[in-house]
């Protein structure tokens, strides 16, 4: 994702179902059906099928997509991984997602998730897009965590 965003692309469908793992256990993002080259700071769309439970509040409300909305979705992807495959927001109806997120509610820390990983998820889920990290920041933070990985992860 760091590579895609550095080249000016937004994916718009960052989710565990779109991560491919090769024989060397290297994860790569797939399914570029919603991917777009950003020629402006924000990409706006109307209509089409979108992954509502993975979308940032600004994307749900205004159909605006940026690298920062991909960051939000990456946080949801982390939730999927550390909850061992739980469907995000399974308790929320799609039509209620905007109100749910705007009220400040977020998924609880998964049972099998370390506090420092959940903290990264929470950074990705900041309400204001400008307060969310960049993929380069996430790459560094997750790389540091992996270098100290124990059975906790």
From TrEMBL:
GO molecular function: ATP binding; transmembrane receptor protein tyrosine kinase activity
Pfam families xref list: PK_Tyr_Ser-Thr
GO biological process, one term: cell surface receptor protein tyrosine kinase signaling pathway
Domain Protein kinase: 1-146
UniProt key word ATP-binding: yes
Gene Ontology cellular component list: plasma membrane; receptor complex
Transmembrane segments: none
InterPro entries: Kinase-like_dom_sf, Prot_kinase_dom, RTK, Ser-Thr/Tyr_kinase_cat_dom, Tyr_kinase_AS, Tyr_kinase_cat_dom
Alphabetical keyword list: ATP-binding, Kinase, Nucleotide-binding, Transferase, Tyrosine-protein kinase
PROSITE patterns membership: PROTEIN_KINASE_DOM, PROTEIN_KINASE_TYR
SUPFAM superfamilies: Protein kinase-like (PK-like)
Protein name (Swiss-Prot/TrEMBL): Protein kinase domain-containing protein
Organism of provenance: Plectus sambesii
Upper lineage: Eukaryota, Metazoa, Ecdysozoa, Nematoda, Chromadorea
């Amino acid at each position: 994702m760091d590579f895609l965003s550095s080249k000016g692309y937004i994916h718009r469908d960052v989710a565990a179902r779109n991560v491919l793992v090769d024989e060397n256990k290297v994860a790569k993002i797939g399914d570029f059906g919603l991917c777009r080259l950003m020629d402006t700071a924000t990409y706006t769309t109307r209509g089409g099928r979108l992954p509502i439970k993975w979308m940032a509040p600004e994307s749900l409300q205004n159909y605006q997509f940026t690298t920062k909305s991909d960051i939000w979705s990456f946080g949801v992807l982390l939730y999927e991984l550390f909850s061992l495959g739980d469907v995000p927001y399974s308790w929320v109806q799609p039509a209620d997602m905007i109100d749910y997120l705007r009220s400040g509610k977020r998924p609880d820390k998964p049972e099998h998730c370390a506090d420092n990983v959940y903290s990264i998820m929470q950074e990705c889920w900041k309400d204001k897009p400008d307060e969310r990290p960049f993929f380069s920041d996430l790459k560094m933070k997750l790389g540091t965590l992996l270098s100290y990985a124990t059975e906790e992860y």
